[in-house]
Amino acid sequence: MVKAIQKRAGNDDPIIIQSWGRSYQVLEQKPNHALFSMSRLPQREALFKWVGPIADNETYFFKKKGSDIDIKNLEDAKKVKLIGAGAETNVDFIELKSKGFTNLSTLDTQSNPINLVVNNRVDLGGSNPLTALFHLKKNNFPLDSIVNTGVQVFSVPLYIAFSLETSDEVIRSEEHTSELQSPNTI
């Protein structure tokens, strides 16, 4: 989708894949950069320029297969010992903190909640189901290592975020090409 938007906008800049934390830092510090995808939250609104939405991010709590943890809602999740929640700039940490969670284990840039669940370092981890599957495959974990509890942490639209120094002309160009988007594509 991003490549199609780039093509329609006449942009052939390379897409660089790096950690989300590093990408976020670059976006804050360097002009004319974009990050996809990012949840548009009130805390971030004035930090970036936005194009989208391009998809929805539905995040659920996952537990390790065989775990006796039984949660039915967010209040139940507040009672478990430890939840892997991403770095403090990640939407899962921000959302859980705003909902009163105090049992969060913030992660370094090399960790993710799914790895921590599989390795018994946390009781629950928040993840989008596709992201969870990606991390299982990437780390050669059995695909049935975790179980989606069915408890939704949050659902937020995803956007392409641009550094503030990006010209409004570029943003308008990207907004007009975002007609290619389909919320169910990603």
Global mean pLDDT? 85
N-C termini distance: 9 Å
Number of helices: 7
Tell me the strand order in the biggest sheet: 1-6-2-5-3-4
> What share of the residues lie within helices?
25-40%
**Binned strand content:** 25-35%
Question: What structural class should be given to the helix and strand makeup?
Answer: alpha/beta
Shape: elongated
- Total DSSP E strands: 6
Please trace the helix and strand order, writing H or E for each element.
HHEEHEHEHEHEH
Describe the protein's architecture and organization:
Helix content is 30%, strand content 26%. It starts with a helix and ends in a 9-residue tail after the last helix. By secondary structure, the chain is α/β, with parallel strands linked by helices. It has helices at residues 2-9, 20-29, 74-77, 91-98, 113-118, 129-138, 168-177; strands spanning 34-39, 48-64, 83-84, 104-105, 124-127, 146-163. It has a six-stranded mixed sheet with strand order 1-6-2-5-3-4. The longest helix has 10 residues, at 20-29. Helix 1 packs across helix 7. The protein contains seven helices and six strands, in the order H-H-E-E-H-E-H-E-H-E-H-E-H. The radius of gyration is 17 Å and the shape is elongated.
